[in-house]
Specification:
Number of strands: 14
Cofactor: Mg(2+)
Keywords: Hydrolase, Magnesium, Metal-binding
Strand content: 15-25%
Largest sheet: 7 strands, mixed
Shape: globular
CATH superfamily of the largest domain: Fructose-1,6-Bisphosphatase, subunit A, domain 1
Radius of gyration: 25 Å
Number of domains: 2
Strand order of the largest sheet: 3-4-5-6-7-8-9
Family: Belongs to the inositol monophosphatase superfamily.
Number of helices: 15
Enzyme class: hydrolase
CATH class of the largest domain: Alpha Beta
Structural class: alpha+beta
Protein name: 3'(2'),5'-bisphosphate nucleotidase
Order of helices and strands: HHHHHEEHEHHHHEHEEEEEEHEHEHEEH
Bound molecules: adenosine-2'-5'-diphosphate, magnesium ion
Helix content: 40-55%
């Protein structure tokens, strides 16, 4: 009896243990384990106690800080544009950098460090030259220390002004992250299209957040684009675009939440509205945009691709990621950037924000082979060559023309 009852007790314990093991294995190995756990928890806990903070899941705070920081930086760049001496230097690769580039990078990095101190930042500029050129450094500091949003609450959200010139230099240098595929990495181009900025054409202040190499938040401040989303693309190109009435737009996007535009403004953020790429019913009627600089993308390849697609309208040329913003709001349709120099690696800060904004507005962005842009390979897009951005419905057709033109070379 005793032995029997001990056996039955043992087998009951064994059965219960096996059952518990099976249940825990099912939950812990299932790919939807956290989801199941939260569903389970929801049955036992009051909803409030298990809901995650909205900022954790929606990137609302990241978007807001990015938009305000970009807005504040554009104010500085606009001020610099009207200064006679813009402190223009030529970098090692012969590209220009100005007081505006350095100042905007310092202001944006300061805001990121105040709000998200653990995050990595990949910024285009560095302060080494300024540490040697004290005169230029102090010129930049004179402007940076005065740069404020007109709305005190918004300014406070950014964490306030930079305390000293040394802090300004250290902020600029904090953009020296090597980037990579893990964790939270911001990509910052304080002035994209510095040549456009200097000639009074298009330029953009660009900021994006990648989490584990995926772009989650993208913001583009374009001081010289019309606020009106329906303004024709031709009106966006050329010189002397500055300060005319109705100029200055801020594009923003969060992964899975769509893309928006709003007036750039000078203080509290203006009202935003959703933007969408235009539906292209006949590709021959599409408008395409490309770089002003023939050295940055192949005008001749792009013109052959357009011909192949039956496009007869001339291309619209403009500097910077303003091209991504312009097609995302439906002012243009395609953005083609075919490589000129085989050895040039595109930089992540030249594409991350625009890539997300276009995709969230209903577009597709790939390289010339049809691969998605890979932002997890460090400071450059070394896995990609060229950029093809188009509305989702016609991207495959455009890509086919790209491959055919490049393949025949
Ligand atoms: N050889 C090149 N090919 C492609 N892009 C380049 C090349 N040289 C510089 N760029 C970058 O192209 C961007 C401007 O693009 P766009 O011509 O479309 O306006 C700039 O960020 C510029 O970098 P940098 O900031 O170093 O000048
Ligand atoms: Mg750039
Ligand atoms: Mg730049
Ligand atoms: Mg540059």
């Amino acid at each position: 009896m005793f032995t029997l009852s001990k056996n039955s007790c043992l087998s009951t314990t064994l059965l219960v243990s096996l059952f518990v093991l099976a249940i825990s294995l099912f939950f812990t190995t299932s790919p939807t384990f956290p989801h199941r756990l939260s569903l389970l928890a929801r049955q036992f806990l009051p909803i409030r106690s298990i809901s995650t903070s909205p900022t954790m899941t929606t990137y609302a705070k990241e978007l807001r800080v990015a938009e305000l920081a970009v807005q504040r930086a554009t104010l500085l760049t606009k001020y610099v544009f009207h200064e006679k001496a813009k402190g223009t230097l030529s970098k090692d690769d012969a590209s220009p950098v100005t007081i505006g580039d350095f100042g905007a990078q310092a202001l944006i990095i300061q805001a990121i460090r105040k709000n998200f101190p653990q995050d990595e930042i990949v910024g285009e500029e560095e302060a080494a030259t300024l540490r040697e050129n004290k005169e230029l450094s102090s010129k930049i500091w004179t402007l940076v220390k005065e740069a404020r949003l007109s709305d005190a609450t918004a300014e406070e959200e950014l964490g306030g002004p930079i305390p000293s010139e040394e802090d300004m230099l250290s902020a600029i240098d904090a953009g020296n992250s090597a980037g990579g595929a893990k964790g939270r990495v911001w990509a910052l181009d304080p002035i994209d299209g510095t040549k456009g900025f200097l000639r009074g054409g298009q330029y953009a202040v660009c900021l994006a957040l990648m989490v584990d190499e995926d772009v989650k938040v993208g913001v583009l401040g374009c001081p010289n684009l019309p606020v009106d989303d329906s303004a024709s693309l031709d009106a966006h190109s050329g010189e002397n675009q500055t300060d005319a009435e109705g100029k200055g737009v801020l594009f923003g996007a969060v992964q899975g939440q769509g893309a928006t535009s709003r007036p750039l403004g000078i203080g509290a953020l203006g009202k935003s509205q959703p933007i969408h790429m235009k539906e292209v019913s006949s590709i021959a009627d599409a408008t395409f945009c490309e770089s002003v600089e023939a050295a940055h993308s192949s005008h001749s390849d792009q013109s052959q691709i357009a011909q192949k697609l039956g496009i007869t309208k001339p291309s619209v040329r403009m500097d910077s990621q303003a091209k991504y913003g312009s097609i995302a709001r439906g002012a243009g349709d395609l953005y083609l950037r075919l490589p000129v120099r085989k050895d040039y690696q595109e930089k992540i800060w030249d594409h991350a924000a625009g890539d997300l904004i276009v995709r969230e507005a209903g577009g597709e962005v790939t390289d010339a082979q049809g691969k998605r842009l890979d932002f997890g390979k460090g400071r450059t897009l070394r896995n990609n060559k060229g950029v093809v951005a188009a509305p989702r419905g016609v991207h495959a057709q455009v890509l086919e023309a790209v491959k055919s033109v490049l393949g025949s070379k």
